[in-house]
Task: inverse folding
């Protein structure tokens, strides 16, 4: 079974740097039925990078996996996360994790030395660390994906996707070009700072 940590996912400060198990996704997929047991996997380019065994009971889910911290020895981890349920407006219930560390209700548990919420791991959302240029670049990539253009803002604009209305295309292209201006401005600022540093090193 694939493990977690190994210096890549366990020691960083953003939510995207750690593997996570979203109880909402499990509920939508029907994976919270008592008596179920399955192996949840994370893959990249068709290759499994990590996995975790989940066993579902009426009121909790047990997690079994292996964890490694920064190249240290592997440790077997077994932990129980209790479930809480709140009523939905139109019937049924919504499932939540109760964090095994602090007991607070949460939708996502992050997988490290133990499953825990983002507050216990002191994780920030990546968007909180982004500059204006970073956010603009992220929006450019989202719009390029929606427009079915080649990834990467240096590849130029592509044609209107087949089946897309012209009005929608013009709107999305205008948004894309506006974010592109912010992205290029950020790149220019970064290059300016880099040149200034190089100049200072040469003078020193």
Result:
């Amino acid at each position: 079974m694939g493990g977690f940590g190994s210096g890549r996912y366990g020691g960083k400060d953003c939510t995207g740097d750690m593997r996570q198990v979203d109880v909402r996704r499990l509920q939508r997929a029907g994976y919270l039925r008592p008596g179920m047991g399955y192996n949840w996997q994370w893959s990249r380019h068709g290759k499994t990078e990590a996995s975790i065994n989940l066993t579902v009971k009426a009121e909790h889910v047990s997690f079994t996996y292996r964890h490694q911290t920064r190249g240290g020895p592997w440790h077997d981890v077994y932990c129980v996360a209790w479930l809480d349920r709140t009523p939905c407006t139109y019937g049924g219930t919504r499932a939540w994790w109760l964090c095994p560390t602090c007991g607070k209700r949460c939708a996502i548990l992050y997988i490290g030395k133990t499953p825990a919420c983002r507050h216990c791991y002191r994780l920030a959302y990546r968007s909180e660390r982004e500059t204006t240029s970073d956010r603009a670049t992220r929006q450019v990539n989202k719009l390029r994906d929606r427009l079915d253009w080649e990834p990467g803002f240096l590849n130029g604009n592509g044609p209107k996707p087949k089946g897309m209305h012209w009005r929608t295309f013009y709107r999305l292209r205008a948004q894309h070009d506006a974010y592109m201006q912010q992205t290029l401005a950020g790149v220019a600022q970064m290059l300016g700072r880099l040149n200034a540093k190089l100049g200072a090193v040469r003078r020193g």
Summary: The mean pLDDT is 84. The longest strand covers residues 74-87. Residues 43 and 88 are 33 Å apart (CA to CA). Helices lie at 23-28, 132-146, 166-203.
